[in-house]
Design a protein that fits this description.
Number of helices: 20
Structural class: alpha/beta
CATH architecture of the largest domain: Alpha-Beta Barrel
CATH topology of the largest domain: 7-stranded beta/alpha barrel
Distance between the termini: 53 Å
Largest sheet: 9 strands, mixed
Number of domains: 4
Number of strands: 55
Shape: globular
Strand order of the largest sheet: 1-2-3-7-8-9-12-13-14
Length: about 950
Amino acid sequence: MTRVGLGALLAPLLASLLALLAAWCCPAQAQAPAPAGVRPPNIAFHYGSKPPVDALQAFDIAVVEPDSGFDPRRAATPKTAWFAYVSVGEVEPSRPYLKDMPKAWLTGNNDAWGARVVDQAAPGWPAFYVDKVIAPLWERGYRGFFLDTLDSYQLVAKTDAERARQEAGMVAVIRAIKARYPDARLIFNRGFEILPQINQLAYAVAFESLYRGWDQGNKRYTEVSDADRAWLLGQARTIREQYRLPVISIDYCPPAERQCARDTAARIRAQDIIPYVADPGLQTVGIGSIEVMPRRVLVVQDREPGVSIDDSAGVRFVSMPLNYLGYRVDFAEASEPLPEIGPDRYAGVVVWMDGNVRAEPGRLFSWVQRNIGQGIPVAFLNDFGARIGGSLASSLQLEAVKGKIGKTAEIVSKDPMMGFEMPVAPDRTRAAPVQVGAGPGFRSLLRLRSGTLTYDAAAITPWGGYVMGPYAVRQSVNDQDRWVVQPLDFLRAALRLPSMPVPDVTTENGRRLLTIHVDGDGFASRAEIPGGGFSGEVLFREIWDHYRLPMTMSIIQGEVSSDGMYPKLTAQLEPIARKVFAQPYVEVASHTFSHPFDWGRTVPNGTHAQNPTEGDDDYHLAIPGYQMDLRREIGGSIDYINRTLAPANKPVSMLLWSGDCQAPAEAIKLADQAGVLNMNGGDTLITRSNPTWTAISPLGVNKGDGTFQVFAPNQNENIYTNLWHGPFYGFERVIETYELTDRPYRFKSVNIYYHNYSGTKAASLKALHKVYDYVLSQPLMPVHASDYVRKVIDWQGMAVAREVGGDSGGQPGAWIVRGDGNLRNVRWTGAGVPDVAASLNVTGTSPAPGGGVYVHLADGDSRIVMRDGAAQAPAVPQIVEASGFVRGWQRGVQDGAQHIRFEFSGYTKPFFRLAGAERCRVAIDGKAVQGVRERGTLRIDTTPVPDPNNAKQSVEITCAA
């Protein structure tokens, strides 16, 4: 809770009679509305130890506790200003500057908060405060400050003269801050008495508890009286009308009661005051002018020792559907202490168990009950983790039933979401003796009967839902796993997931993305075709320079360098690598030094097998004299390529994982420290002979310690050719994967992923030609692998929020989408359609496979307005398709005509199509272009560039009224 002094708490009570008399004899005038089209800033307050940057970036301003360790300089949040909480009237014992303060400056106590009151009139206090409090924070990157406890002096100042002396001292402190840092933005917490002297130095003024308060002494929530509210509204009116400053009210509701926060925020906003409603300690993400949608789901599982997170059911089965629905996945182990989570950040919990919890099952179910109690939906898949019945069934509001299991089982009733990829095959050995009730919120998905026992094997419940095995995924020893329940439908229903604009990495500007990346394996191999040569030479001649599509190329240092496996070939191989890396369409990557096959063995106590310092070295290439060294694998290989092979202006940008691609957190950290992105792994292998969503990987996996591994969108030719045993033309089947990950839903972008050894055989080269020719026949947008990876990283932290109530612009409930600007596509499948004309930083829309529309975002900060009804002809010109990057979008009206300006660039045959442009003229770099009218749109073709980030064309569109 933001602290205030005792005098400030009493001030409304002392003034209430005067306020009521004034309201009776002189009715208050309506508060002046905000100027048309101008929205006050969204402001959040979070004093937790780890500020959730992903959620808080939805706000224009986020006030954080600077001692939390948060560094605003490292936050990739260009649209969010980070303000530091600072106390002026008091000092807490934990503040490091307390030891430097003379004891004479400490004149009293605030017992409720355990803080010392500071004498504001003490000589030297203003200079000390700027030097010791503000200056260090300015150096750390803070450019705004929330000045708290401006009323605490009233705890010790008992006369008018003493109060005036304290107020003068506080004014001196604030003036000293602005004198040293004129650009600092200051938000005052109250300080009503000194505002007449320093209002011109304030950015905004806050107070607490317009409707809902917190009694710190008695640890309880309170309702604000009408008299106290009237007094505060009078202060707010003066601040708004006389000083022309934004006003903020910070109110308090229990963190589990999100509806209380919504309702209170709406009431505050109805008074034209910026709201923020959270818990008293400001430890959770509250609700202000916007409500941030929680985009995390916690998956709880119980892995056996030696099973990597990559091989777990949470990654193999659960993560991909959740990613498609827009949710980032975090993991926890049921046999370890479970994290405390809240409904402000987590949309739900999925528990996947393979039998009983191995350790302390009671801890798991107590934790589950706590989360259900605070309104977080929970879904069980495969197993409850303990024998269901008795008290456990009762705790989950399930009815324990009795009966004798027979020799067979049969279906009594089945919901349409059951029997998705394979029919329900009743299995009497997995009977769960429970049924759901007939009350609201209960819905049986699969009712079975065996003997005299009738039970619900799957259901939706008021707290979430469950699907018992084998009716979630029917698992097979030959990797022919199948979903029995439709996972998207079940997770939506069980976790009660609302409609929202879903960040989507598969598409940009209406076109599915295409990436190409090549692992270094086989660069030293010779081609088994007429003319021979090394594989890299053949691929360059036959594929890369023939198609000239943006691609990411890697080499294994241990195959190429003189300290590797083939030192006698180095003089021949290095020039080939230099030639390839020098091509303008090639992005440079490393595939490590020794190509580890089993990454779990590269670190002590890894998930796979023995300590790497013991035993054989068959988990990496057999390089003479080499012992595993992660730093050499990653940083060393990158340094070698930059120093020896890469052009000076094009260093290594990516690290492509090798072998099983199950990189440990330690390796990912080293890649991050080297300043490169990472990718590979995941195993997307869906084909017509294996047509299951269980063969579609998620976007990546959190490996702990803040690390994230990005998975490749598709798998490579090694898998399609039976581990390079043949048929060597097998990679052409990746086309099936492209098609099955596009319909009925677009789960993945298109990714041509193969190894250098594909250049060694005629059949594999023929397959590559077939794949390349296929992708060129499709409406795709070619980008580098690094472009894709940056989109995935942006997806991880992107904030989606909805405005609370309406605003002065008459656009209620608009959506706010914020990220770092790399991901510029969201998918909308809810009610209504996007109104491009009323939205901000939205360039257009296009149909999305599976229903709904893609919304094209101009940058990392968009406001999407929805309207009722079906799609109509565009009210303003908009981009319906583009094969390049649209940046710097600006739209306005001048002399009654629509004007649009943006920068455009693309790697391969870039063009854009405009709808609603019947009366428009287009100029590129100041020169008029005609374009082609097609399908009711205007198509403009432009010139490709090798680096769209640095070479852009200026587009101007002018449309007659």
